[in-house]
Design brief:
It contains six helices and no strands. The protein is mostly helical.
């Protein structure tokens, strides 16, 4: 199961990163829409983040080596989802702080997500004899 979580994380981060880079304007519009009604949208976003992240951590108990990165991503997602569920107004504040530079911030995170996702996929394929 750990290998499946690693593969899933690599794929999701890579595709999300490329999407952030290529569709920054669309993502900026979506984030702006969320900011306008942040409290109500924080609940389903937080629940979804908490669910997926708890799944990652529950089935990926790796606390050393390269793939510790995947577990840490899961733990960060649990924290993020919990914050949105317990303090829904925080989403609007976080997005408000990023609002003036949405597109550049989205592109920065896109590059980061894409790079980390490709690193995970590369290491995963090396260890599993794929490619």
């Amino acid at each position: 199961m750990e290998q499946a979580i690693e593969l899933m994380t690599g794929i999701v981060l890579t595709v999300l990163g490329v999407s952030f880079l290529l569709r920054a304007q669309d993502w900026a519009g979506w984030f702006d829409d969320i900011r306008q009604d942040g409290r109500h949208r924080a609940i389903p976003i937080g629940a979804f983040a908490l669910l997926l992240s708890a799944f990652m951590v529950a089935f990926h108990q790796v606390w050393s080596g390269f793939f510790l990165l995947v577990t840490v991503i899961g733990v960060l997602g649990i924290i993020e989802g919990s914050v949105y569920l317990l303090f829904p107004g925080s989403l609007r504040g976080i997005l408000g702080a990023l609002a003036p530079n949405y597109k550049s911030t989205i592109r920065l995170f896109g590059a980061l997500f894409g790079f980390v996702g490709l690193m995970i996929l590369s290491k995963w394929s090396e260890l599993n004899g794929v490619l």
